[in-house]
From TrEMBL:
GO MF term set: methyltransferase activity
Keywords, in A-Z order: Methyltransferase, Transferase
Protein name: Class I SAM-dependent methyltransferase
A Gene Ontology biological process term: methylation
CDD domains assigned: AdoMet_MTases
Annotated source species: Nostocoides veronense
Domain Methyltransferase type, first and last residues per copy: 73-169
Length: 272
C-alpha cells in the first residue's frame, strides 16, 4: 500500500475508476519505484515477490523445468525485468503494462541492456491479443492486486492462452489483509476481518481516487480461476528465505517468518 494518502478508506471502486487511478499512480511513481526496488529486482531478473524467490529456483512457468512454452506474455510487467530475463535465455516474449511510465523505465533499461523485449501498453483485464496466441502468460505482482475486475484478468489470460498453456501469477497473500500493513511486530496482530473484501482506497482532497488495492479471499481467487475455465495446478505460499534481510513495504523478515506474504497461483488451460 502506498502510504502517502490524504484520506484512506475501505470502499467499493469500480474497474474504470480503479484503472484510471492505477495509471496515474504508477506513471507518477515509476522512476522512484525503480530507484527503490530496481537493484532487488535486477534489470534482467525474475523475482516472484518481496521474499526474493526467483523463477530459476521455483520453475513455475514450465512443468518440465525447461524454457516456458512460447510465445510468452507478461502482464503488469512494470519495467519488464522478468521478460528480459526470459529473453536473455532465448525465449520469445512480449511485456505489457497499463502504465506508460513503467514501460518507459523498461525502455531506459533496454537502452543499456543487450536483451530488448517488445513492450505493449494495455490493461491486463482487457488484452489486445487474439485468442490462443500465447503458450504462457504470467505476472509477478502485476495487475491482479490492482484491478476491481480480477475475474476478467483470469478470463483474458484463459482466452489468449493456447490449450495446455500456463497462467502463473503472484499476488499479495490474502491473509495479509487481516493484519496491519507494517513490517514490524505490530504487523503480526490481526486487527480486521479477512473476509472484508472492500478495496483499500486513498483519495485526494477533491475525493479523486489516487491509489487502490483490491482483495479477494483464497476461495474467491480459486473460484475466479475455475470460472475462467482454468485448472489450478498449484498454490505456492513461499516462506521467507534466511538469506533475505530486506524489507519491502509491509513485507519483512519479521513478518515473513510467521505469515505468508505472497501467494503464487499456477493455472493451466485444459487441453481441448
Ligand atoms: C508491483 S509492480 C509489478 C511489476 C514488476 N514485476 C515489478 O516488480 O516491478 C505492479 C505493476 O502492475 C501494473 N498494473 C497495475 N494495474 C494494471 C492493469 N490493470 N493492467 C496492467 N498492468 C497493471 C503497474 O503499472 C505496475 O507496473
Amino acid at each position: 500500500m502506498s502510504g502517502g494518502a490524504g484520506r484512506v478508506e475501505r470502499a467499493a471502486v469500480g474497474h474504470d475508476e480503479s484503472i484510471a487511478a492505477q495509471r496515474r499512480w504508477w506513471d507518477g511513481e515509476a522512476a522512484d519505484y525503480r530507484a527503490e526496488h530496481g537493484t532487488f529486482l535486477g534489470d534482467s531478473g525474475f523475482v516472484w515477490g518481496p521474499e526474493g524467490w526467483t523463477e530459476a529456483e521455483l520453475s513455475l512457468l514450465s512443468p518440465a523445468g525447461g524454457m516456458p512454452p512460447a510465445p510468452v506474455l507478461e502482464i503488469g510487467a512494470g519495467a519488464a525485468q522478468c521478460s528480459r530475463s526470459l529473453r536473455a535465455q532465448g525465449v520469445e516474449v512480449v511485456a505489457s503494462d497499463l502504465s506508460g511510465g513503467m514501460l518507459r523505465q523498461g525502455q531506459l533499461i533496454d537502452a543499456i541492456a543487450p536483451d530488448h523485449v517488445p513492450l505493449v501498453q494495455c490493461d491486463g483485464a482487457r488484452l489486445p491479443f487474439a485468442e490462443a496466441s500465447f503458450g504462457t502468460v504470467f505476472t509477478a505482482y502485476g495487475v491482479v492486486p490492482f484491478v476491481a475486475d480480477s475475474a476478467g484478468v483470469m478470463r483474458e489470460a484463459a482466452r489468449v492462452l493456447r490449450p495446455g498453456g500456463r497462467f502463473v501469477f503472484s499476488t499479495t497473500h490474502p491473509i495479509r489483509w487481516a493484519f496491519p500493513d507494517v513490517p514490524g511486530v505490530s504487523g503480526l496482530s490481526a486487527h480486521q476481518s479477512y473476509w472484508d473484501t472492500r478495496p483499500y482506497v486513498e483519495r485526494d482532497a477533491r475525493g479523486q481516487v489516487t491509489y487502490v488495492e483490491h482483495h479477494r479471499t483464497l476461495g474467491e481467487r480459486v473460484r475466479e480461476i475455475v470460472a475462467a475455465g482454468l485448472d489450478l495446478v498449484d498454490l505456492i505460499e513461499p516462506q521467507w528465505p534466511e538469506r533475505n534481510d530486506q524489507e519491502w513495504g509491509g513485507w519483512s523478515p519479521t513478518r515473513g517468518r510467521v505469515l505468508p506474504g505472497t501467494a503464487i497461483f499456477v493455472c493451466r488451460k485444459p487441453l481441448a
